[in-house]
Design brief:
The chain is α/β, with parallel strands linked by helices. It folds into three domains: 292 residues, HUPs (Rossmann fold, 3-Layer(aba) Sandwich); 105 residues, Anticodon-binding domain of a subclass of class I aminoacyl-tRNA synthetases (Four Helix Bundle (Hemerythrin (Met), subunit A)), CATH 1.20.120; 48 residues, no CATH class. The protein contains 15 helices and 15 strands. Strands 4-3-9-10 form a four-stranded parallel beta sheet, sandwiched between helices. A hairpin with a 2-residue loop joins strand 11 and strand 12. The radius of gyration is 27 Å and the shape is elongated. It starts with a strand and ends with a strand. The protein binds zinc ion.
Length: 473
């Protein structure tokens, strides 16, 4: 499997450093508000990568994602609303996890809260001070960028260039404008912890280093996030981790492109955003997943409702096949006397393997979900062609196609069979309407019969007349 490694600036062959265990860290949310729709992209694409590795490579992925529950943004929100930082963090942590569930994103193996690991962050900062990579000024601690010779290796920025235009704010007491905060002294009323430098709180860049090491050890296989995190966040993580251990921090760095609105990136601060829950309410989670996976994860993606509607249509092509084949097979399925497929049926079953191979080669080429979805759409087209001529027991060959669609869709979080609706009143009522319609047609009362069909269609229920009777989806 090849993945584009930002650190190497090229695709590289990936395998776990140790056996079948992949140690993967993805930067998590700062829980001060609901997510906007652009925040979902890393969640969906790295979830697809994880599930692909688990389902198709047989690797176990230890997936760690932090929850930043202390930060300037939380403190600001607390000042605005009068709620405590803890109340705000709890509220948006809960909405975050319910969003993951709704989106069918597998829960991280570990989701550490930053505030539960302050001690480890203090220890890391002490180590960095001891080695000359950090210094204290009046209760604040800064990282000494000039001491770390590899600074800039991930982002490709040179410290001389970065210095141009960098300023030191009047409130800061840095040696150098590039130095960044490791520990911040508390102002009155802010959340705070005891430390050797007085009461305060750790900086965000320190958090990810400590939380990843806590659960994954000193060297990660994959560290991932949005490409807006490359600089300074990930660069600063590398500077701390590698200065402290002398070892490579992460073998692979994966970054997704951002969601764009016109020429601009979608950002809360620009006001050009839509909340994820609003978009999910309107389009549903599967459409949102398809929308993201239909574009390569490293490219920027334009946000528009038209784009989501396109995704919805493409998704519907697959679901129509699944629903119709399932409804048709409902009557004819199974039984020991069912004869085997004909030569045409066997040829169709044999052809399925090449769609699976194509899907795998696309997914292993830097997670090319665009090609993987194309392979599934071609499989659907092939199944529809076969279906138009298949008869009798050959139709059972279509079940194999549905099973394959389910298998290939699993890592993408798409095309999973819905749980069968409870056999109940609804089914009985639709059956009753279908029977009434048939009686009306028999009496040549076509206008009324069509009206039943059309009014059901408005409720999302499609009737299809087949030689063996009317089916509904
Ligand atoms: Zn991070």
């Amino acid at each position: 499997m090849k993945l584009y490694n930002t650190l190497a600036r090229k695709k590289e062959a990936f395998r776990p450093q140790e056996g079948k265990t992949v140690r993967m860290y993805v930067c998590g949310p700062t829980v001060y508000d609901h997510l906007h729709i652009g925040n979902l992209r890393p969640l969906i694409v790295f979830d697809a990568l994880r599930k692909y590795m688990e389902a198709f490579k047989g690797w176990e992925v230890i997936y760690v994602q932090n929850v930043t529950d202390v930060d300037d943004k939380l403190i600001e929100r607390s000042a605005e609303t009068g709620d405590t930082v803890e109340e705000i963090a709890k509220r948006y942590t809960d909405t975050y996890f319910s969003l993951l569930k709704q989106l069918d994103v597998k829960e991280p193996t570990h989701s550490p809260r930053a505030t539960e690991y302050i001690e480890g962050m203090i220890e890391l900062i002490q180590t960095l001070i001891g080695k000359g990579y950090a210094y204290e000024r009046d209760g604040d601690v800064y990282y000494r960028v000039s001491a770390f010779k590899d600074y800039g290796k991930l982002s490709g920025r040179r410290t001389e260039e970065l210095k141009v235009g960098a300023r030191i704010a009047a409130s800061e007491k840095k040696e150098n404008p590039l130095d960044f905060t490791l520990w911040k002294a508390a102002k009155p009323g802010e959340p705070k912890w005891e430390s050797p430098w007085g009461e305060g709180r750790p900086g965000w860049h320190t958090e990810c280093v400590v939380l990843s090491r806590e659960f994954l050890g000193e060297m990660l296989d994959i560290h991932a996030g949005g490409n807006d995190l490359i600089f300074p966040h990930h660069e600063n993580e590398i500077a701390q981790a590698e200065a402290a251990t002398g070892k490579l921090f992460s073998r692979f760095w994966l970054h997704n492109g951002l969601l764009m609105v016109g020429e601009e990136e979608m950002h809360k601060s620009l006001g050009n955003f839509a909340y994820a829950y609003e978009v999910l309410q309107k389009f549903g989670p599967e459409t949102v997943r398809y929308f993201y996976l239909a574009r390569h994860y490293r490219k920027p993606l334009d946000y528009s409702e038209g784009g989501l509607e396109e995704a919805n249509k493409a998704l519907a092509r697959v679901h129509t096949l699944i629903d119709e084949v399932e409804a048709e097979l409902g009557e004819t399925d199974g039984g020991p006397e069912t004869p085997g497929p004909s030569a045409a049926g066997r040829a169709f079953i044999d052809s399925l393997g090449r769609f699976r191979e194509r899907y795998i080669s696309e997914m292993e080429d830097d997670l090319n979900t665009v090609g993987a979805l194309a392979a599934i759409q071609e499989l659907v087209a092939e199944a529809n062609r076969f279906r138009s001529t298949a008869e009798g027991s050959d139709r059972l060959a279509l079940k194999k196609a549905l099973n394959l669609i389910g298998e290939l869709g699993w890592p993408l979080g798409l095309f999973q069979r819905k749980k069968p609706a409870p056999k109940g009143l609804q089914d009985e009522l639709i059956k009753l309407l279908i029977e009434l319609r048939a009686e009306l047609r028999a009496k040549k009362e076509f206008a009324l019969a069509d009206s039943i069909r059309d009014r059901l269609a408005k409720l999302g229920i499609t009737l299809k007349d087949r030689p063996q009777g009317t089916i509904w989806t």
